[in-house]
UniProtKB/TrEMBL annotation:
PROSITE patterns: HCY. Residues 12-336 form the Hcy-binding domain. Pfam families: S-methyl_trans (PF02574). The keyword Zinc applies. GO terms for biological process: homocysteine metabolic process; methylation; tetrahydrofolate metabolic process. Keywords: Amino-acid biosynthesis, Cobalamin, Cobalt, Metal-binding, Methionine biosynthesis, Methyltransferase, S-adenosyl-L-methionine, Transferase, Zinc. Zn(2+) binds at C258, C321, C322. This is Methionine synthase. Belongs to the vitamin-B12 dependent methionine synthase family. Its cofactor is Zn(2+); methylcob(III)alamin. Its EC number is 2.1.1.13.
Amino acid sequence: MQAFKLPDHPSLARLRAAAEERILILDGAMGTMIQTLGLSEEDFTGSSGGHSCHLHSDHAQKGNNDLLALTQPDAIEDLHLQFLRAGADIIETNTFSGTTIAQADYGLEEKVHDLNVAGARCARAAADRAEAEDGRPRFVAGAVGPTNRTASISPDVNDPGFRAVTFDDLRVAYGQQIRALIEGGSDLILIETIFDTLNAKAAIFAAFEAFAEAGQRLPLMISGTITDASGRTLSGQTPTAFWHSVAHARPFTVGLNCALGAEAMRPHLTELSGVATSRICAYPNAGLPNAFGEYDEGPDETAAQVARFAAEGLINVTGGCCGTTPEHIRAIADVVKDSAPREVRA
Ligand SMILES: [Zn+2]
């Protein structure tokens, strides 16, 4: 494949060196932290502050977290910094919904380029600041979410052949996002919360096209999500099948995130670790959400589960997904600091 003829981004050598030494720490959930800020519609659109943002959209923007990189960049940079100071080596850009497909819900398709560049710059600024403070290398992962559509499953039970999105729609949308994430200073690209592997394959394809344009290959992290107790992704794959579907991308890590919490994730992680020849990354939710959609699992509880992943030699990178705070990340970093990273089989 053409992408493998490109020179590697310099971050790869730094990431590899750090990953040889220890289990690397990924940050926690931005969404939960943003909620605690209690931002209003005016805060989201930036219409009350100094940032004049001509959004050209008549949709309400409250809840459009990705937009905050443009309208509240200082707040986003501060949240990144909290995770970095808690021990994160790698932080994810706040761009989970930064595609034209996901932003269509807010009528902000035209802003996609700007909000991804801004999202990457917020994370870059925080990472550079943290690295200057203590000298430890920090990395910005340009985060690419699954979008809210599935390329391999029909949303209409009466029309199983129907698709709300095609591979090429996704390829184009992901390409636009990834090029902007690279422009904003990302060190690597993280394709995450994959429930439909065909969406992820479109993102991988788009990433390779963007790397070819940039003349450099960035490391890839690829993370699936197991959405039900039977241990399959929404598109019906086991962890083994998922690995074989993405192995061609030769990712820096493959792994699992989100969904049912660390305890439920462990058997699937064990299976993935048994087949994958890349490093493994796992970042579970803080347990299962309660009836109000809130996460009750405390930092020590989540960390105790992650400590088990580490003790069993299953992980190279770990952190937290939904409901995890800087305190969770601090506790996780603390419990894995003396554990050896999983051995990578060539
Ligand atoms: Zn999650």
